[in-house]
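Our working data are protein records whose layout never changes between entries. The record below serves as our worked example for the rest of this section:
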Amino acid sequence: MKNLEQSDVLLVFTYAPAGLGHLRVTDALYDGLSAPANSVLLGAADTKITYWHRLTSLSPFFRKVTEWFTTKKNGYWFYKLYIWTLEITSQSIYHQMEHLILEQWEEKKTIVVISTHFGLAHQISAIKDRLEKKLKIKLILVVQVTDATSIEIWYVPGADLISVPSEKVKSELLKYAEDKGLRKTKIMVLPYPLSQTLGLQLSNEEYELKLKQYDENSSAKIKVVIPISGAAVGLTYYDKLISKLRRSSHRFIVFLVIRNNIYTRPFIKKMKKRNYVIVVENNTDKKVVDSYEKIYQDEVIALEIVKPSEQAFKSLFVPQQRGGSVLLLNEAVGRQEQDNLNFLIDHQLLPNQEDQNQIQTLSDFSKNKEFLNKIPNWRAIKLANDPDKDVAIINWCLKTGIFNRMSGPRKKIDSKSSELASDGVEQFWEKVDSLIKN
C-alpha cells in the first residue's frame, strides 16, 4: 500500500446518520487500513436523514410511499429530483471539505474520499471539480455500496470507483446508466467489507463452546446478541421475543446493544430489570458499533437476531470466526433489505422460500435428503416476525440439530466464490491504492 502511505495523500471517510450500517462499513474500512495513512472522518450533520430513516422504518404508510417512489418503474424521476436537491444544497459540504483540506494541508496533493452513503457521494461529486480547481488538488471519490442492491441512487456519475458486492448489482447499475445516458464510471465487484475484528478466528476451546450452545442436550448458556437499529424499530416485538425466549429455556442469555435516546429510554429501563438481559447502552452511534464488536471479542456468541440490513453480510463469516454466529433475520423493510435476502438465497446462505416454509411450519425433514444436504451451507434463517412463532422456530432448530449442522464446514456449491470471501476490506484498499498510482 505504498501509495496510501505517501505524506501528500489524505483519506477522508464520510458517513451519514441514517442507521448504523454506513458507520459500520466506514469503521470496517478504516480499521482495515494496513498502512499508516493520513485520514480524517467527516460525518453529515443533516438530522433530516435520521428523521426520515426513522419515519420510514416505523410508519407503514411512509414506508409504502417510499417503496412506491423507489421502484424501478417510478424511481428515475424521484432520484433525479433527489440528486438535484442534494447538488443544490452541497454548499455546506463544500465549505466543510475546503476547511478540512486546508486544516490538514501540509502539501496534500491527493484527497481520497470514501463514501458509504449515496447522499454524501452525490454531494461530493457535485463539488469535486470546484475543489480541485480552487485548491489545486486531485480528488478521488470512491463509493462503497452498503447493500446488495441496484437501487439507482447508488450510481454516482462523478465517482472514480463504485464498489459493489455482486456481479448482479454491477450489471444492473451499468444498464441503468446506459439506458439513461449517464456519464460512465468504473464499477468493480469486491467482497463486502466486513470487520476484521469479527473475522478473527476462535480458539479451539471457544469453537467447542459454540458447538455446545447449539446442542440441545447441553447445559451451556446460549448467548444471543440483539443489536437495535438506529431508528429504534421493533421494540415491542423484541420485548415479547426476549421474554418468551427466556421462558422457553433458562439457557438463553441476551446481549442487547442499543443507543440511549428519547425513543429507547423506556425500553432500556424495562430490559435492565431482567437479570438474563445484559444491556449495553451508549449515547452515540460510534460507541454502539464499538460496543457491538466488543461483545463479540469478549463472548462466544451463538445467535444474532437482526434486521436484514448490512448485517446480513455477516453470513460471509464461517462458524470458526468470532463474527460467525447464526443470523436470525427479521422481516425485510424496503427494497434494499429484500435485495440482501435475495443475495443470501442466490448464494445458498439462506433457505429458499420452499425450505423456509418447511422451517416456519416446523415440518419433519428427517427423511428429506435434499433438505439435509442444504443445511451446512446456510448461515442465516428468516424469522416469521411473530414472537411466539419465532421462539418456536429457534427452539425447533435447536431440537432438530439445524443449528448444529449449520456450524460445520460448507459443502461445495455453484456460486461466485469471489463474492463470498471475507477479505473484502483488504481487496478494497488494494484497488484504492492503484487509483492513487494512476
In short: Residues 45-56 have pLDDT under 50 and may be disordered. DSSP finds 17 helices and twelve strands in the chain.
